[in-house]
Amino acid sequence: MEGRPLPDQFPLEPTPSLSVETVVSVRHWNDFLFSFTITRPPSFRFRSGEFVMIGLMGDNGRPLLRAYSMASPAYDEVLEFLSIKVPDGPLTSRLQKIKEGDHIYLGRKPTGTLVADALLPGRRLFLLGTGTGLAPWMSLIRDPDIYDRFEQIAVVHSVRGVSDLAYRDMLEARLADDPLVGEMAAERLTYIPTVTRETFHTNKRIEGLMLDGTLFQGSLGEPKNFDPVHDRVMLCGSMTMIKEVAAMLEGFGFTEGANSHPGEYVIERAFVG
Ligand SMILES: Cc1cc2nc3c(=O)[nH]c(=O)nc-3n(C[C@H](O)[C@H](O)[C@H](O)COP(=O)(O)OP(=O)(O)OC[C@H]3O[C@@H](n4cnc5c(N)ncnc54)[C@H](O)[C@@H]3O)c2cc1C
Ligand SMILES: NC(=O)c1ccc[n+]([C@@H]2O[C@H](COP(=O)([O-])OP(=O)(O)OC[C@H]3O[C@@H](n4cnc5c(N)ncnc54)[C@H](OP(=O)(O)O)[C@@H]3O)[C@@H](O)[C@H]2O)c1
Question: What is the pLDDT of residues 8-20, one digit of tens each?
């Protein structure tokens, strides 16, 4: 329609459910993935592992919002997100072009089940994610609280290609540069990346790594199988992965937890589809 303003010409205005934040930094990992940080309003409180709605102005002059997991821990001054780039995705076809200083909508009500409170106490915590399902793990493992609750923590990240291993250097270094959790992570964090469509030292999907014992490596110790008495599991990513792994866990005697009734494992899909 002639004369119709482009989405970027609508200024972002706060609403009762949305604040307007400023992009602080952007990092592109590859053609499919990027991460960025935004300002955090003083009133914004969340638990590490939760998600929130974020977005831009839609071409109808109304906010275009999508759910995103915080990748930063609850105490951080900025909010960090890890995002897919869907070429024809209504939001991410535009979101991938954001630059420092741009404005973005942030929902005022974070929520979610990938939080320590939804799990019963345990000894080993397994964080199993595909693709952008890594984001909540980056939040949880940078929060000292998780090291108070679990002796050992494993981050398992399944991706198609090597360049999809976002945060790989930081994870391989076990968060060595992190002043708050670096020391604890050095002894108690295990990073298990797997690349399913390119040559890499580990190639199996998560289900395969559960069955062949690969997940029970290094300081994770014994037993070399899932044990509902001591092990806790969080799942995030592809819905088919979640369904398949959840069924395996149920077969091992695990029950699903929620905020209202903690259990031995919790799930959250990282995208619709
Ligand atoms: C609880 C929850 C948390 C989420 N957290 C994140 C997050 O931290 N980071 C993130 O990038 N996305 C996350 N998403 C997905 C996100 O809400 C959007 O779907 C995504 O930003 C794409 O938006 P879009 O408008 O460009 O395309 P959409 O129309 O939303 O999606 C188009 C298609 O792209 C695929 N797709 C969308 N998102 C992803 C993804 N993350 N990984 C793989 N395929 C995908 C799906 O097949 C989908 O049908 C989350 C979704 C939910 C429900
Ligand atoms: N190099 C590329 O071309 C490339 C790379 C990344 C993303 N993308 C694009 O981004 C979109 C999203 O891709 P994505 O890689 O983030 O998500 P994805 O297709 O869900 O794959 C991410 C990881 O999850 C695994 N997985 C998928 N289904 C599973 C299941 N049922 N059980 C266990 N593991 C499972 C995949 O293994 P499998 O490989 O065995 O399926 C892969 O290791 C794609 O549609 C694609 O268009 C393309």
Answer: 556 899 999 999 9
- Spatial contact of 168 and 30, defined as CB atoms under 8 Å apart: no
Say yes or no to pLDDT of 25 above 90.
yes
Instruction: Reduce the secondary structure of 43-98 to three states and give it as a string.
Output: CCCCCCCCEEEEEEECCCCCEEEEEEECCCCCCCCEEEEEEECCCCCCCHHHHCCC
Q: Can you tell me whether residue 63 is helix, strand or coil?
A: strand
Location of structure tokens 């399944």: 158
- Pocket of ligand 1 from Cβ distances under 6 Å: 51, 66-69, 81-84, 86, 89-93, 131-132, 135, 268-273
Homologous superfamily (CATH) of 7-107 is Translation factors (2.40.30.10)
Q: Give the number of the atom of ligand 2 that is nearest the alpha carbon of residue 245.
A: 32
User: Which ligand is located closest to the Cα atom of residue 210?
Assistant: 2
Second-level CATH architecture of 116-269: 3-Layer(aba) Sandwich (3.40)
pLDDT recorded at residue 3: 45
Cα 237 to ligand 1 centroid, rounded to whole Å: 10
Ligand 1, atom nearest to 69 Cα: 8
* CA 131 / ligand 2 centre spacing (Å): 6
Name the closest-CA residue to atom 40, ligand 2: 196
Mean pLDDT of the chain: 95
Q: What is the pLDDT of residues 30-39, one digit of tens each?
A: 999 999 999 9
* CA-wise closest residue to 139 among 153, 151, 123: 153
Contact between residue 237 and residue 272 where contact means Cβ atoms under 8 Å apart: no
Q: Where are the domains of the chain?
A: 7-107, 116-269
